[in-house]
Structures are given as C-alpha cells and as structure tokens.
C-alpha cells in the first residue's frame, strides 16, 4: 500500500504507526479545540464559558455511560468479526444511542438536585438538543473505535478535523448573533457534520473492504460478560475524568470552573496520547497474541519518551499558554496545568496495565484498577478543593496516579507477560 501525507514520515510498524496517527488525531482535535475555547473566552463571558463547559462535560459523561464502553469492545472484536462486521457495528450503534438517550433524559429530570448550575437544561428545546447531542456523541465515539479496529487511523484524523473546524465556524456565527447557547449549538453542529461524513466513508468503504479481506469470523464465547465487565470498569475511569469539572463548578463556582476547564483541556492531551497507543496495542495483540509482552514494553518506552517531552514543554510554557486565554487563566491555572501534565507520566503505567490486562482477559483486575483511580481522584478532589482551591484538583490527580503506578511498576512482571492465542481470543474467564 502506498502511503501519502503524514503516513510517509511515520514508522512502518503497525503498532507504533497507527498509535502515532491516533495520537495525531487527538493532538489535532485538542489543538483546534484549544483554539475553539480561545475564541469562546474572547467572544463569550467567563460565566457562559464555565457553564457551557460544565454542560458539555456532563454530556460527555452521560455519553460515556451510554456507549457501554463498546468503543473498546469494537477495537477488541471487529478485527476478527469477518462478514459480521457491519451487523456488529450497527447493533452497537443502535444499543448505545438508545441507552444514552435514556440515561441523558434521566439526568435532565434530576438536574436541580445533581447540578443546580445547569438548570437551564430543563428548558424543553435545550433538553431535546442535550439528549440528541449526547446520543449522537456515543456514535461519534464508536465510529472512532471501528476505524481504529480496521486499521484506518488516518480517517480518524480527518473526521476529527472536520468536527473541530466546523464547530469553530459555527461558534463565530453564534457570537455574531449574540447567542448565549452559541458554544453548545456550535459543538452539536460540528458533531452532526462529522457523523455524516465519517459514517458514509465507514459504511461504504472501510467495512466492505474489511469484510472482503477478513471473511472468516472468530466468535469468542461470552462476549456479553466480557463487555459487561469492561463497561463496569470504564464507568469508574470516565467518572474520574468527567465529574471533576462538575465538582469544581459546584464547590468553587462558574469562574473557577472556567479556569479548571482550560487547564484540563490542555493537560488531558497527554492522557489521550497514551490512550491512543493503548488502542493500537490491543488491535495488534488480537492479531499477534504471542507479542503481547514485546508490544507492551514498546508502548511503555516509546510513549514514555513522547510524554516526557510533552510534559517539559507544558510545565515550562504553562503561564504563556494559559495567558492566550486571558490573564485570569494564567494567574489561577498555571500550577494546576503543571500538576496535570506531570500526572500523565504515572498515568502511562496505569493505562498500559489496563490494556495489557484487558488483552489477557484479567477483567477483575481491569475493573479494580479503574475503581481505585476513581475513588482516589474524586476523594482527594473533595478533600483538597476547599483547602487549595482549583489547584487542589491537580494535586489530587498527581497523587492518585502515583499511588496506583508505583505498585504496578514494582510488580510489572506479574501483569506484563505474554499471552497465548487462546487467552486473547477466548473471553470465558473474568479472573
């Protein structure tokens, strides 16, 4: 296959090359996303920015609940689904869209109790938008997983660029019209266009090609039990990522929430790099189970080098990066951003351990690690926010990640071990 564009400068090894392309997708999305929020902070009041980001954080949390972690499920099982690929993909779409809509509707009904600052979501028209956008985002997440599973990471880059640039254009339109909901509407509009483009290419080109190239399906037993265990763990991991902005909003108010939101958007890019390399790791292990240990060590070394460079840049440049959004962001968010960047280093160990254990079907450990992360992060944030303000959230993240990564490094020989093909393709054990 002839490679063009960015593919020419990336390694030819699928594990690293596809991981890099997925990381590029996240970086592009985050970079343009940062520009989106840069414009938002200049075109909208700080309070509108803070409330809008909290509403989007709630939507992302509900979408992650509603998508049942079938993104990782597709990454794991589409490579060996053969001519059942289209059926499996569309079934996952239908299940997640329906479930996420129901979960989102329940959240809207309980908003006065759960997050009074988001009471505007009870408006009928806004509620319809919120539910529909949340359901659509679950499909957005699943389509990325499907493209990754079929080794089409370049398409993930393209559809994320479409999403990013369209929402910036719509954000400008909302500012011109002085819409207080302009941030939310622009995000939903960009999502819609991206879904239409990506799924046309996915269902008309990628899926038929994959089914022709891999006609024989491998049907591991007890898929539902595997998916249920994986989903249970993912709920706790996503809660740690998405509940903190709501905690900051409820404890410190909308203005401090805006400061946290911008720092988290930037710092989370480093977490996404690791996440993307882990997705590539799982896809390749399905094809070559005997190389699990080799691939796991490769991801640790390679991602560690990339992360170290990224952490240095962010720690050194934090005040100047945040000053682009306004002096208040630099004053209140510099230390927070540095702490979040540093926490990405121990997060590398945590994330690789989860992916390796998932490939080895050690689902109890997968769930246990993610529960531990959630409990530590949310518990420490609850304790530290009143004492240290928004910086307390950064201290909580760094402390929680280090508490988990340290024993994993010490005991790495117990989880970073090779797997047989039967171990990888069978899902009968959840030990």
TrEMBL record:
Q: List locations, semicolon-separated.
A: Cell membrane
Taxonomy, superkingdom:
Bacteria
Q: Name one GO cellular component term.
A: plasma membrane
The stretch of residues making up the signal peptide is none
The alphabetical list of record keywords is: Cell membrane, Membrane, Transmembrane, Transmembrane helix
Which chain regions cross the lipid bilayer?
21-44, 50-68, 88-112, 124-142, 154-178, 184-203, 223-246, 258-278, 299-322, 334-354, 366-388, 394-411
Q: How does it sit in the membrane?
A: Multi-pass membrane protein
Query: In its UniProt entry, what is this protein called?
Result: Uncharacterized protein
